[in-house]
Design brief:
Blueprint (H helix, E strand, L loop, with lengths): L11 H14 L5 H8 L6 H8 L4 H11 L7 E7 L4 E7 L5 H19 L8 E3 L7 H11 L3 E2 L6 E4 L13 H19 L2 H12 L5 H7 L4 H10 L4 H19 L4 H7 L5 H12 L3 H8 L4
């Protein structure tokens, strides 16, 4: 069994480019659902096998909450419980292709839960925090997911009954699970040694206009402490901020739907001139020259 180590992880901006290319190439409102259903548990590598060998669905979800960063940094899972239902919720860490990516993740979770339980698991509903599509599209969602779908939900996720957590898994194997867990722990430890810069990057991907002080406030630490902790991870706030902002600036200029003033505001610059200076520092070009170079020949 081979695993991807931290050095081999695909950079977030490359992942985003892949998602954008997929979205452009396949303008299908149910593309995320189809992608998720096509995923095999074995394609998730170590984490996939670790989940499959748990004793029941509840312990598999608990392991997903712990080890999902090994699969990617695109979002965060959370378990919400009440007397009548349990919800596995998913919050994205990105701006681009958010709906496509959220629906892909939830479709993967639902499909794998069914496979691992021998089709015994059936959710109460799949919740999507996105506007309700046409009735015909709603019916396609329900047919593909084989579950009720709730649109305009407060959060995207899968709602299940508390007793569903006790459904045993087909491939449960305590000995195999015990052998896999130390390796997963080691990989997670290596990944989380850079956890702060990932959290800063996630915040800026969601809101690229945030300043150092605002990011520090979101993380409940002082700006000085933020800088010191990032230095310990061989990173800096300025470098992370530049990477995120330059990515969005280039993307928006290519798309041509925002003015330079709009982009400046969205990235947290006081005016178009300040944005232009930053853009030249990133690319060596003015925004106008970059945009001209992106135009397709007639």
């Amino acid at each position: 069994m081979t695993h991807i180590n931290e050095q081999d992880r695909v950079p977030m901006r490359v992942q985003e480019d892949i998602w954008l290319a997929l979205q452009d190439a396949y303008p299908d409102p149910l593309l995320g659902v189809r992608l998720g259903q096509a995923m095999q548990g074995s394609q998730m590598g170590l984490v996939g096998y670790l989940l499959m060998t748990q004793k029941n669905l509840g312990t598999a979800i608990e392991q997903l909450l712990i080890y999902h960063p090994l699969l990617g940094e695109g979002g965060q899972f959370e378990m919400r419980r009440s007397s009548f239902y349990v919800e596995l919720c998913y919050q994205p860490n990105y701006l681009r292709c958010a709906r496509l990516r959220v629906e892909t993740v939830l479709s993967i979770c639902l499909a794998q839960a069914r496979v691992m339980t021998g089709r015994e698991f059936q959710p109460q509903s799949v919740m999507l925090a996105y506007p309700t599509p046409s009735l015909a599209i709603q019916q396609q969602y329900q047919q593909l997911l084989q579950a009720p779908v709730q649109f305009n939900a407060p959060v995207s996720g899968i709602r299940m009954r508390p007793q569903d957590l006790e459904i045993p898994l087909m491939a449960a194997d305590r000995q195999v699970m015990a052998r896999l867990k130390p390796e997963a722990d080691a990989l997670l430890k290596a990944l989380t040694s850079k956890s702060l810069q990932l959290r800063v990057s996630h915040l800026l991907q969601q809101e690229p206009q945030l300043s150092r002080e605002q990011v520090a406030a979101r993380l409940c630490i002082s700006p000085r402490h933020l800088g010191r902790k990032l230095l310990e991870e061989s990173a800096s706030f300025r470098a992370i901020q530049d990477e995120v902002r330059s990515h969005y600036a280039c993307q928006w200029l290519r798309e041509g739907e925002k003015t330079n003033v709009d982009i400046a505001g969205a990235l947290g610059y006081c005016d178009e001139s300040a944005f232009g200076k930053a853009f030249r520092r990133w690319t060596g070009l003015s925004p106008k020259a970059f945009k001209s170079g992106c135009r397709k020949p007639e």
